[in-house]
Design a protein that fits this description.
348 residues; alpha/beta; Rossmann fold; 10 helices; binds guanosine-5'-diphosphate
Length: 348
């Protein structure tokens, strides 16, 4: 049996103490504000996160924001990604592209969640490295943390226990992304960073009845029940799991904030710091939508992890705070959903 060299813990990972990615000096480059004329590539520009990051960059005055949609560039195609990077030569990359879905999609299609996400990430990160892209933000997810992590979950909980089985394939892919970012920092000295958002919602979400996350699913279910005059709706599981919800526009602001104020190898949690039960969420959505029938729960459906609340002190210490309160964000998202019924924006 071999023995490991002396290690220290950081960001939940074990590494040789001399090589801690937290310590890699990068001349304070990541703390320099981004130039508004920088060419920023938003990978995943049409998704929930990518479209919000795009809006925020434009709002902040960035003049060269680029990002082909998936029909123009399939990020799973390595050759195509390398060719695209060589031609476009971005200065900054926000990697928001991913195959995402709710509890049922993750539990029933783990092979796709693992393979697609690994390929998207490895291709984009490798191509960005080949072009020596200096500033890069990789987006992960709060599901990277162990199922029974101490709450609220600190970044140090990474890799300290078994994952929630309903989304372990997606989580493993995202953990690989964090490690790749840390490895590039360590080996090449580039100040790349990772952010781990909690459950997100907002405009341009996926409202598919089976494959989406809980919040858009509930909006659609309550809306359709209201429209059809249905006397009851049935939600999944026991309603007792607790979740935290962040409006995607708040995440977009956090992404820019981190790119300008954070330079470390450890991932940074992005959330509100407060959670509620799925039952409480359903009541809130019912009120916002204006549905008056009864609400029932199908306990034969999966509950998933019992609680997933992020400790956001690392981010708040960097001077960031969320602005959009849940009821306000829900009201705005419901209005967006109603406005876009029947349009291409509601892809499902
Ligand atoms: P998770 O946070 O990875 O577990 O993903 P989801 O957002 O899909 O599910 C969160 C919780 O909401 C789970 O406990 C689900 O069982 C519950 N839930 C209740 N109704 C629904 C629904 O209609 N769709 C989804 N996706 N989840 C629901």
């Amino acid at each position: 049996m071999t023995t490991c060299p002396k290690v220290e813990r950081y960001g939940g990972l074990r590494t040789n103490s001399a090589l801690s990615a937290f310590e890699v000096p990068v001349d304070g480059k990541a703390h320099r504000p981004l130039e508004h004329s920088s060419r920023v590539f938003v990978a995943g520009r049409n998704g929930l996160v990518g479209s919000a990051v795009w809006r925020e960059l434009v709002r902040e005055g960035f003049t060269d924001v680029i990002g082909p949609g998936s029909a123009e560039l399939d990020l799973r195609d390595r050759r195509a990604v390398f060719d695209w990077f060589a031609a476009a030569r971005p200065d900054v990359v926000v990697l928001a592209a991913a195959r995402v879905g709710g509890i049922k999609a993750n539990a029933t299609r783990p092979a796709e969640f693992l393979s697609d996400n690994l390929r998207i990430q490895v291709n984009v990160l490798d191509a960005a490295l080949e072009q020596r892209v200096e500033r890069l933000l990789f987006l992960g997810s709060s599901c990277i943390y162990p199922k029974f992590a101490e709450q609220p979950i600190r970044e140090e909980a990474l890799l300290t226990g078994p994952l929630e089985p309903t989304n372990d394939a997606y989580a493993i892919a995202k953990i690989a992304g964090i490690l790749q970012v840390q490895a590039v920092r360590r080996q090449y000295g580039l100040p790349w960073i990772s952010a781990m958002p909690t459950n997100l919602y907002g405009p341009a979400d996926n409202f598919h009845p089976e494959h989406s996350h809980v919040l858009p699913s509930l909006i659609r279910r309550f809306h359709e029940a209201k429209e059809s005059g249905a006397r009851r709706v049935v939600n999944w599981g026991s309603g007792s799991p607790r979740r935290e919800f962040l409006h995607v526009d708040d995440l977009a602001r956090a992404c820019l904030h981190l790119l300008e104020h954070y330079d470390g190898g450890g991932p940074v949690n992005v959330g509100t710091g407060t959670d509620l039960t799925i039952r409480e969420l359903a009541e809130l959505v019912r009120e916002v939508v204006g549905y008056r029938g009864s609400v029932e729960w199908d306990s034969s459906q999966l509950d998933g992890t019992p609680r997933k609340l992020l400790d956001v002190s690392r981010l708040t210490e960097l001077g960031w705070a969320p602005r959009i309160e849940l009821r306000e964000g829900l009201t705005q998202t419901y209005a967006w959903y109603v406005e876009n019924l029947g349009s291409d924006a509601l892809r499902n």
